[in-house]
């Protein structure tokens, strides 16, 4: 397949993009973007993709532009088995996989997606260097975000959350690529059929490895994006049982201690806990029941560190009661929750596209339409829509204490300074760096505890440091 030079593509996008200046403009920050797919393959080149995202799309007279975005891949790779062209039942289920999407340019049986063939999925750590390389290759993107910051916020995904070695991997990636990664995820605990296809040990809220992952991410200043379905997709009564809700709820409550010093959420529960096949029955009553579960979390003081992303067009359709129904979007239940006078829901949600290696700018921007009823709903709380569109993302990722933690670990672990044409020397970290008024009362105490947590982590996981530090 022929490829055009990136510069030519960027110019073509500019010429073909309609003028948007005459329209009202909204700035979106994408909290959930997969640059790579289940074969660790990209779609559009990163630079022209960024330009297309920033150019945006006009919907109902309003220009929606992407001003900033996360950047991550998929932690799992689909095993390529040429003999798996015929369908067969997935392990432990009556679901049959069929090879419906085969790439003729790559070879027989090359799968595009985890639903296409029956072979298992396995964790692939090479995804994170690929993301770091893409991030660093977009030199303009390093300062193309709001106020000259980076457009991209890369995330670490290439680890098995059922294995404590996940912490080693996180620390190695931060040491090898200092200043690059801002969080971990999206990674999965419970995910419909994916959980049935993962090779080896599967993560559980009962195992100690997952607890170590959350503890370490909090210490290192990394935002956590967790995918865990509330509902068992094989349960015909899933909407009432919500088989995994209690376990998720209890686990997240236990992680409160790790995020206690932060004044912003550190965990983003992807898709609000909705999975591909669940709830299997959909109605306004089902939406209300789902929102009641979110309300329980939002009202719990032990879960202030948990936010939700409204990512994936399916979730937007579910929350506005249009999935498999065909009716016009209805935000009645959503607004009843968001306008709750007793709990401020507006500070706990971020928008995300959940776009997967889009082949074109149009493919990416096509994800926006289902979210418009949510982004333009009649909220009673001041600036609620803006918080969902970009404000909460900024608060979470730019939390001064998180930024300090990432810098301090880089200073302690990395030998080569900042990457991607940044300053040659990693800056020192001092209490005065916490210039946010939220943290003004205890700058010294917060800084001391932050350094202590990271120093302890380095001592507890010495293999990560040994693998990356230069001798002498």
UniProtKB/TrEMBL annotation:
Gene3D superfamilies of this UniProt entry? Answer: Metal-dependent hydrolases
Record's SUPFAM superfamilies?
Answer: Metallo-dependent hydrolases
KW Signal (keyword) present: yes
- Signal peptide residues on this chain, from the entry's feature table: 1-24
Keyword line:
Signal
The record's section on InterPro entries has: Metal_Hydrolase (IPR032466)
Could you identify this protein by its name?
Amidohydrolase
